[in-house]
Amino acid sequence: MKKLIVLAGCMLLSLSLYAENPQDETSVVISASGTQEALHNQQEDTLYLPDLVTVIGGEDWMVSEEALPDYQLQLPSPPSVWVTPPVLEPNLQVVDAEPVPALPPSVMEMASAKKAKQFFVEGFIEPAWPLSLDTNFSVFTLDPQGFFLDFGYKTVGGYGLEQAEDGFFHNKSFLQLGKNFTMGSSSLQIQGNYRALDNGLQGQSLLFDDINRRGAGAQLQLELPLGNGFSMTGGLPLDWYNRYAGFSNTVGRAEENGAVAASLLGLSPWLSFDWNSRDWNADSTQALPQNHEFSVQLLMDWGYWASLDPEITIAQNRGGVTLSGAWLWNSQLEIFSSLGLVYLPALSGEHQIKLLVPFTLGLEWNVPRWNEKDASAEAGAGGDFSGMSFSVEGGLDSRHRNFYQLEVAEPYVNFSPKDLISNGEVSNWFFKAGSSFPLVLQDTPVSKLFQEFLLQLAVEYRQSAFGNNMLTGDYAAGIDSWTGLFPFEQKDSRRLFSQIAVTAVVSNFLFKAGWNSQWLYHPVYEPAQRLVFSCGYDSPRHPWGGELKADFGFKRTDFLPIFGAQVYYQPTENLRLALKLKDMLKLFSGSQRVFVEPYMKEAGSVALSLQFNF
Predict the structure, then answer these.
(1) Distances 519 to 409, 430, 462, 497, 526 between C-alpha atoms, Å
(2) Phi then psi dihedrals of residue 483, to 5 deg
(3) Cis-peptide, bond into residue 368, ω within 30° of zero
(4) Cβ atoms within 10 A of the Cβ of 1, count?
């Protein structure tokens, strides 16, 4: 007898630790971080299930006509898309879907007998002209003793009309893997990673062809529940960083190599004790129960960084302890704070500080969806004003620099290994606030046009504290002709960021507009003001769609806007083909994008990508 199994409204979980996010990701696909800017069909469709197993998953809420079964089942409306308060960049998230309607008991019994899928493979391959390839592959499982493996590689050979053999190239790769082990209620996680970046010096050095950077790390993390809401977690991270040059000339090789090479090792064990009250109902007799949740954490950490170069004998220790707590009321209002102590025995920064007292105080408020009757009475318009959120946070933060991330952001700067260690601490006074709210009421005539119409606002201020200043390239000094690299400087910085973003969903169209600003200080390789626009479309009946986007970065050395476009075709729910045009003005003109004079960066390209999810 044929069996009927229905698994409807199920989204496949995407777990990927893509640390090197491509700069040209589009807003039509689900990125590795889980961001989804896909358009959803708001209509309810009737599906007929045949005598086969049908799994609805992936990033779309559509099923091809060939897969329409004989059994009739009404699916719920897809979830609404809302925007969370940003820090600097918009981040669209998808709220949980509404519960699937109850199925007949016989169907439910057969569905529960089917073992859920546990093994996943996903990724993309994107060759492009001129001469580039971008790939990412992820393999992972969902069981408690699962594992993950994530690999990515990108190579760009030649910028515009410039050739790779002339030094106009860059390659980057990464590998991350991990395994979980469960021992009763305890769990052990073992993780490792490797990352590499190779930048051609574009003929600017008399000695070197390129600069290579390597980083590797490993961590053991143990989680041990103690009962009554208490738990203990500890970690043992180990990190290694290496930088070296590729030689094109042996003249002065030994002398100059010492000024460029770097090999650093870091060890940062930590231990935390946590307590969470879970949910506590203060008065369950009220129409609106008062649910409270309290959490406290005591974190102790120690860090050791040293140079592995025998000619540079320098090391630094750092010890810290932080007590933090939070109160969450009705899953709507959260107030949190922290107070810490950082001890630097070898002194730190311009002011030679030994003790720091970082602290944080903030709150986040999410306005829930009103009851329709209450909303009508309050608003007088028969609609609900929901999805609002506000956040504010301030204090003093202090952390050790990440050497690899610092040099990835500024690849043509010769940071001294000695100064990276002796000035490893970076401290900032900070204040940031953000909000997100819809611009139209639900269940009103205007809301029938806009499925979503949202406004994001964000502002952040940061100022260097206690002489633990930022490290950046001294681009005004010019490059050293032997190494081809800029010197570095410590800068006492004051930075003010702001962002305004609007997102609108109309039928199957997604519109976005944003204005990002840096007001007091900004690096010379970044524009002070940026205007970004995009429009995407997903066909409700056919497996195709597209996107247009524009980025106006008002930069004195490179003022041409960045225009991009793509069109995609999705023959199955697990495969997507896309044709992309990136930075079209530079592509058609064959000219270059300026990073910092005299260095260029990647500009226009034509790419064909294949994205898969199995």
Answers:
(1) 20, 15, 11, 6, 12
(2) -90, -25
(3) no
(4) 3
Q: What percent of the chain has pLDDT over 90?
A: 50
Identify the weakest region by mean pLDDT among 62-76, 361-375, 388-402: 62-76
Residue with tokens 């190599």: 257
With a CB cutoff of 8 Å and minimum separation 6, the contacts of 184 are none
Rounded distance between C-alpha atoms, residue 159 and residue 605, angstroms: 9
Strands 333-348 and 353-356: antiparallel
Give the residue from 292, 276, 368, 302 showing the smallest Cα distance to 329: 292
pTM attached to this predicted model: 0.75
Exposure letters 41-58 (e unless 16+ CB within 10 A, then b): beeeeebebeeeebebeb
Residue 584 DSSP label = H
Rounded CA gap, 50 and 53, in Å? 8
Listed as own residue / partner, the contacts of 374-383 with beta carbons closer than 8 Å and 24 or more positions apart are 379/441, 381/441, 381/444, 382/443, 382/444, 383/441, 383/442, 383/443, 383/444, 383/447
* Backbone phi and psi for residue 106, each to the nearest 5 degrees, phi listed first: -65, -40
Q: DSSP string of 270-334? A: EEEEEEE---EES-TTSSS--EEEEEEEEEEEEEEEEE--TT---EEEEEEEEEEEEEEETTTEE
Report strand pairing: 53-55 vs 5-7. parallel
Q: Are 79 and 95 in contact (CB under 8 A)?
A: yes
Of all helices (H) and strands (E), which one includes residue 422?
helix 417-422
Residues 6 or more apart whose CB falls under 8 angstroms from that of 561 comprise: 550, 551, 552, 553, 585
Single out the residue of 371, 431, 368, 424 nearest to residue 397, CA to CA: 431
135-146 residue pLDDT tens: 999 999 887 788
Q: What is the pLDDT of residues 450-496, one digit of tens each?
A: 888 899 999 999 999 999 999 999 999 999 988 899 999 998 999 99
Q: Which two tokens stand for residue 333?
A: 């209002």
The answer to whether 242 touches 518, Cβ cutoff 8 Å, is no
